[in-house]
Design goal:
Helices cover 17% and strands 31% of the residues. It has 2 helices and 5 strands. The chain is globular and about 35 Å long. The chain starts with a strand and ends in a 7-residue tail after the last strand. The mean pLDDT is 86.
Length: 81
Protein backbone atom coordinates (compact mmCIF):
# COMPACT_ATOMS: atom_id res chain seq x y z
CA UNK A 1 0.00 0.00 0.00
CA UNK A 2 1.04 3.62 -0.29
CA UNK A 3 2.89 5.91 2.01
CA UNK A 4 1.74 9.07 3.74
CA UNK A 5 3.44 12.04 2.10
CA UNK A 6 5.04 14.77 4.19
CA UNK A 7 6.55 18.05 2.97
CA UNK A 8 10.08 16.83 3.66
CA UNK A 9 9.44 13.84 1.36
CA UNK A 10 9.20 16.00 -1.77
CA UNK A 11 11.07 14.50 -4.70
CA UNK A 12 13.35 16.74 -6.71
CA UNK A 13 14.98 14.52 -9.31
CA UNK A 14 12.11 13.97 -11.74
CA UNK A 15 9.91 16.16 -13.85
CA UNK A 16 6.90 13.89 -13.82
CA UNK A 17 5.54 11.37 -11.36
CA UNK A 18 3.14 8.51 -11.92
CA UNK A 19 1.29 6.18 -9.63
CA UNK A 20 -1.68 5.74 -7.37
CA UNK A 21 -3.25 8.18 -4.93
CA UNK A 22 -5.47 6.75 -2.20
CA UNK A 23 -8.38 9.12 -1.76
CA UNK A 24 -12.15 9.24 -1.90
CA UNK A 25 -14.03 9.98 -5.11
CA UNK A 26 -15.15 13.28 -3.55
CA UNK A 27 -11.50 14.35 -3.25
CA UNK A 28 -11.13 14.53 -7.04
CA UNK A 29 -11.82 18.30 -7.33
CA UNK A 30 -9.13 19.13 -4.76
CA UNK A 31 -6.60 16.84 -6.40
CA UNK A 32 -7.32 18.32 -9.84
CA UNK A 33 -6.90 21.84 -8.43
CA UNK A 34 -3.39 20.79 -7.42
CA UNK A 35 -2.70 20.02 -11.09
CA UNK A 36 -2.90 16.24 -10.81
CA UNK A 37 -4.10 14.31 -13.84
CA UNK A 38 -6.19 11.62 -12.21
CA UNK A 39 -6.40 8.12 -13.55
CA UNK A 40 -9.38 5.80 -13.20
CA UNK A 41 -10.99 5.47 -9.78
CA UNK A 42 -10.90 2.04 -8.14
CA UNK A 43 -13.77 2.03 -5.63
CA UNK A 44 -12.64 -1.24 -4.04
CA UNK A 45 -9.33 0.34 -3.00
CA UNK A 46 -10.52 3.98 -2.75
CA UNK A 47 -7.72 4.84 -5.13
CA UNK A 48 -7.09 6.87 -8.27
CA UNK A 49 -4.86 4.63 -10.37
CA UNK A 50 -2.07 5.66 -12.73
CA UNK A 51 -2.16 9.37 -11.92
CA UNK A 52 0.28 11.81 -13.54
CA UNK A 53 1.84 14.68 -11.65
CA UNK A 54 4.22 17.44 -12.65
CA UNK A 55 6.96 18.48 -10.25
CA UNK A 56 4.82 21.43 -9.15
CA UNK A 57 1.78 19.20 -8.54
CA UNK A 58 3.98 16.79 -6.55
CA UNK A 59 5.19 19.65 -4.36
CA UNK A 60 1.59 20.82 -3.83
CA UNK A 61 0.54 17.29 -2.87
CA UNK A 62 3.36 16.88 -0.37
CA UNK A 63 2.59 20.32 1.09
CA UNK A 64 -0.76 18.92 2.29
CA UNK A 65 1.20 17.24 5.07
CA UNK A 66 0.17 13.64 4.59
CA UNK A 67 -3.52 14.14 3.89
CA UNK A 68 -3.40 11.48 1.17
CA UNK A 69 -1.59 8.17 0.86
CA UNK A 70 0.23 7.72 -2.43
CA UNK A 71 2.39 5.23 -4.26
CA UNK A 72 4.22 7.47 -6.74
CA UNK A 73 7.46 7.11 -8.64
CA UNK A 74 9.42 9.63 -10.67
CA UNK A 75 9.50 9.13 -14.40
CA UNK A 76 13.20 9.20 -15.16
CA UNK A 77 13.91 10.71 -18.56
CA UNK A 78 15.97 8.65 -20.99
CA UNK A 79 19.59 9.70 -21.32
CA UNK A 80 21.10 10.22 -24.71
CA UNK A 81 24.68 9.18 -25.49
Amino acid sequence: MGQRLKPEDAFHFGREYRGDIYALWDDAPELRRLGIELGSFNADWACFEDCRLSLLAMEELTALGGKYLADLSPVVPARYN
